[in-house]
Structures are given as structure tokens and as C-alpha cells.
Prior knowledge:
Elements: E1 2-6, E2 9-14, H1 20-45, H2 62-88, E3 94-99, E4 104-110, E5 118-124, E6 128-136, E7 142-149, E8 154-156, H3 166-180, E9 183-185
Parallel strand pairs: 6-9
Antiparallel strand pairs: 1-2, 2-3, 3-4, 4-5, 6-7, 7-8
Amino acid sequence: MRYKYMNQVKIDQILGSRRFSNYFWAAIILIGGFSFFLIGVKSYLELYFNNLFFINNKNILFLPQGAAMTFYGMTGVLTSFFLWYTIAFNVGSGYNEFNNKTGLITIFRFGFPGKNRILKLQYKITEIYSIKINIQEGLSPKREIYLKTKDKREIPLTKVGEPLSINEIEQQAKDIASFLKIQLEGIR
């Protein structure tokens, strides 16, 4: 998260789908899926034409290998298109604004196009009970910061993706809690 301080306002920018890992995997899946699709289609067309493309796949029959490769190729291409779509619309990006001047916390995120493209939640600072840190280690570690309201709701503030180090997540939570002058939960 990137921070911007303007006197009584703190803004944390949230990176959405435009991450290097998404570009990398979208490109790899597109290349692999298109290659599978091309070999599957070529195995079908080899039944009618010989030496069609530059690809040598004389050992691949259309049934069952070519049909399976065509199916998996289309699945890969469609998955890649979905990833490129989320990158193009920068799904998940936005900001968290903590405004001591107006007494409001604004959570803003972009979603998929449509009537619910923009998610904008606003809470009064007086409704917030604490900042909560949730750290779970294991195969898929979770390191998240939540706004905990007085009516026990927990609103996530951190981005989805690669988890930050424990020191970074604790420091971010401390910064937010000290800025809002509220308590902090979950620190060891």
C-alpha cells in the first residue's frame, strides 16, 4: 500500500489486478492455450490435408488426443481472456481514505463493469471500535487488516494477493490505529 498524508487525511492506495504476476500468467496461459488449440485443430485438419502448418504432430490423432488438446486449448485461451479483462478494468484497485477532518472512513474499490462497478463504503470514525490484524500461517498464509465496527462487523482493508511480511502488516495497522486514535487488536 502506498500512503499519502494531507494534514488530517490519510489515503492508502490499493493495487488491483495490474500486478506483474497477473500479466505474466495471462501471457503464459494465452501462449500455452493457443498452442494446444492449434495442435488440436491441426490434428483434425490432418485428416483432410497433409503438411498444413509448420508444426510436426504426425503422432497425434484427432480422437482422442487432438480433441482433448482442442478443448484444453480453448479453456486456456478463455481463462487468459478473463485475466486480461480483469487487468484492463483494473478490478480490485482503489483506496482507503481516513479523514479526521470530516470524521469519515471511505473504502473505494473498482469491480467488474456493470451497475456495481464501483464499491464505495463510508463509515464514521465514531462507529469504528478497533483495527484488527488477522495472521494465519500455513500453505496459504493470510495477513489481513480489518476495520472492526462497534456492531462486530469486520471490513477488510488489505489487498488480495501476495501476503506482506508480518512486520509490514503490523506497522500498517499501527499507523492506521494511531492516525484514527483507536485501539489495535491481534498484535502479538
